[in-house]
Queue: 2 jobs
Job 1
Amino acid sequence: MKRQTKQRDLVVTALTKARGFVSAQALHASMTHSGSTISLATVYRALTDMVGEGDVDSLLSLEGENLYRACSSNGHHHHLMCRECGATVEIDAKPIEEWSRAQAAAYNFTDVEHVVDIFGLCSQCA
Amino acid sequence: MKRQTKQRDLVVTALTKARGFVSAQALHASMTHSGSTISLATVYRALTDMVGEGDVDSLLSLEGENLYRACSSNGHHHHLMCRECGATVEIDAKPIEEWSRAQAAAYNFTDVEHVVDIFGLCSQCA
DNA sequence: ACCTTATTGAGAAGTCTTTTCAATAACGCT
DNA sequence: AGCGTTATTGAAAAGACTTCTCAATAAGGT
Ligand SMILES: [Mn+2]
Ligand SMILES: [Mn+2]
Ligand SMILES: [Zn+2]
Ligand SMILES: [Zn+2]
């Protein structure tokens, strides 16, 4: 059975305090800076579990690094993210969903999933 | 000045023969299998250069690996790709471009770029 | 042919992530 | 509260992908 540990709680807290998407390493660094002695491996494990349970969103940065965020929206949605500070806006995109489905159907692709994210500079970082 | 080498030509040839998107490592493996003694580093260098010159498209797989393809379309476009065999369909997405711009503007984001790719199983792999 | 220097091959190194395994601690039970 | 089971942890090793280093090679202009 799944156990509730201090470490997992700390990861949740730290992730919630983060402004936007953060990497596992950045999160671990900030936790360490705050006095925690949690290991990097445990941060990775916690984030991976949370993503699997749907409590946390993840996406690949343009550099191929996994970033994580405790999103407020529950359902499927997309992101507009500042590539400088990580600030993130959650956006619904019904037209995208339709478009994606239509394209897949048109070319007889099944079991489809789409990656749709927008990266830019927020007004503060611009 | 840029020099034309046998190795670069071989990479172009191998990439063109590939059905869809392939990783640098897969491409190198297939070239090696075909008798070439080109080094992996050179394959990476060639692909990186070609992407920079706009002759080759690249995208991040869902696992975070860089994949490459010699696309037929010149301009900006997106991809519907089989996650099993790499087979790829190039798709225009005017509505997506508009939508992307609109979202960025609405939230005062500048210097935006979007990642829009659809992954699934092609009819053969399904 | 010769010279200059961009390019190559081979391996080392870098970065992100997962795995291993012995030690620890969460939680159900008494 | 005490106990036993076993999920979880920390630390280090390993794995995967990519880039870098540097001496040797070869492209291409003269
Ligand atoms: Mn989200
Ligand atoms: Mn393309
Ligand atoms: Zn910003
Ligand atoms: Zn396929």
Job 2
Amino acid sequence: MSQLTEQPAEGPVPTSADVARLAGVSRATVSYVLNNNTAVRISDPTRRRVREAATELGYVPHAAARSLRAGHSRMVLLPTAHLPSTPLHHRFLHGLESGLRRLDYTVVQYGSIGLDPDDAARAWAELRPVAVIAPGSVPLAPQGIAVLRRSGAKAVITLGPQPVPGAHALITDQREVGASAVRHLLERGRHRIGVVMPAEAGPALFAGPRLAGARRAAAAGRARVEELPLHYTEESAAALAARWSTLGLDAVFAYDDAYAMLLMRALQDAGIQVPEDTAVVGADDSMLGRLLRPRLSSVRMELATVQPLADLVDRLVRHPGTEPERHDLLRARTVHRESS
Amino acid sequence: MSQLTEQPAEGPVPTSADVARLAGVSRATVSYVLNNNTAVRISDPTRRRVREAATELGYVPHAAARSLRAGHSRMVLLPTAHLPSTPLHHRFLHGLESGLRRLDYTVVQYGSIGLDPDDAARAWAELRPVAVIAPGSVPLAPQGIAVLRRSGAKAVITLGPQPVPGAHALITDQREVGASAVRHLLERGRHRIGVVMPAEAGPALFAGPRLAGARRAAAAGRARVEELPLHYTEESAAALAARWSTLGLDAVFAYDDAYAMLLMRALQDAGIQVPEDTAVVGADDSMLGRLLRPRLSSVRMELATVQPLADLVDRLVRHPGTEPERHDLLRARTVHRESS
DNA sequence: TTGAAAGCGTTACCAA
DNA sequence: TTGGTAACGCTTTCAA
């Protein structure tokens, strides 16, 4: 048929038994050598023979067999929801991942969008991860946590604005973002503050807490806060801008820089002066904001450094059964530019 | 110590033997029932007893044991480089993933940034994936392909602008992006065309091919193309804008919308009129471009629909040893707005 | 210093 | 219709 011969022959996958045969030793010896087992002394010539045999055959150990025998894996599972995310988020994930790799964990992302929460937890559990770090964008109920723990996960950790009962929590408290923006606006003398609420599903997760933080800061400063639902479309922005004067607002916190740009453009097109008539504050402190005119004031966020976090995960894995811990990751401060 | 008792007891993980014991049947029967094995008839009462026992124990099958026994897994490994990517890219990945899930594959992403190419391939091979789909941002050499094939991967597929010898290739031919932009500019009567070359490592992968496509289209239209290295900073953009008049260009293709915005802003700040003095074209057709003034002309890209792609992967897995195939995924056309 | 053998959780073959 | 058993690849204990 289409069984054309290729360079890497369609042969059977080499096992440690093949290596042993070629090196003229037992499988045990192969295991000792390749795992640098110090508890047992192997002669240097033997070591060399084993190594050479392994290389010659292109032997790669079988992770499944290994963890089956060991009774546990070193896989850390990171369910993902594939939301386009910010550079900050990317740096964080990458840092966490390489931190864990340094501790000899295998980090694996498992796309879980559109799965029923229970199915998802079961699917993760089948892989018998030693730890699961679930972002808030992925549904994880106490039910799912129980399944994971029963299947041997030593640590179940959530990552997001909300903790989940029974799991450890790395908290990115988005309320601080909204609060920082509103405090900034209060300092600039604004008291009637709109807060853009993205209608899209992805941002919705963060939008609620940001609004709550904005409300809290506003209450402390005798300011008024008004929710402003907005789709990420020009039409929606234009519609909002058209009724802007009826809202009686002198400032707006626009969820993030992208929504801020969308709204600011619509406001300007509708003849509303920024910042004179209305101050605008975004969030993410992206390059985008610096390129707008007026330059966009924006909430800058910083996440905790990651090596300590990887160490934390490691500690939780080694001491399962500790009370759920909470760790606050997010710091926010507003960078003042021209739009406010 | 810190061994506080928790709700999900620290007990042993339930196995199919436990389910069998509780249901009063053999392990084989459990396997038949839970896998809906049709080759074997099991009485309904037995089925029910087994199912109930499994639920009661919270039994989840052990994927490693299963694939060890089966001699193969259904894992598709997707090495990732964690570049912040476009919504288009996200939609594509998510679609491919759910398409493969529908075909009963387990899709897993493996962050591989900063790994030596050979180490990376070995690490992937340890998981014994049935297929590997490696984006161009992840280094994969013929050496690595051989390791993967030897370890049982039925299909090794690259995804990006360049094919790799020995692997199947899903090609996103970025040359077409540059060519489309330049053809558009030629139609608008421009003949001295700058092409922005991002100095950052991430975009560099796409920048070369886009430039090559631009050159090809320019040659066909007797136009001149000039490379313009640019860092993604305001300073770099300002520096480029400052020497703009000495370049004698009447148009620029700016790699993507973000770089286009950066450059367009710098040009405007330097008093250069867009599009009168210089036409600007971006790429990605993002919301960003529609919000700029003048509105940004941009190359819109479309990727092939994904279910056929998932089917393709499935076919390659079922017919290993077929000649490396190439499939072209990318379509590009330029959307004309005000900046050109 | 090395080897033989058991066992991890599954599934598939063959008997009963 | 159901059960016993062997085997997948690996590590580790015990014996030589």
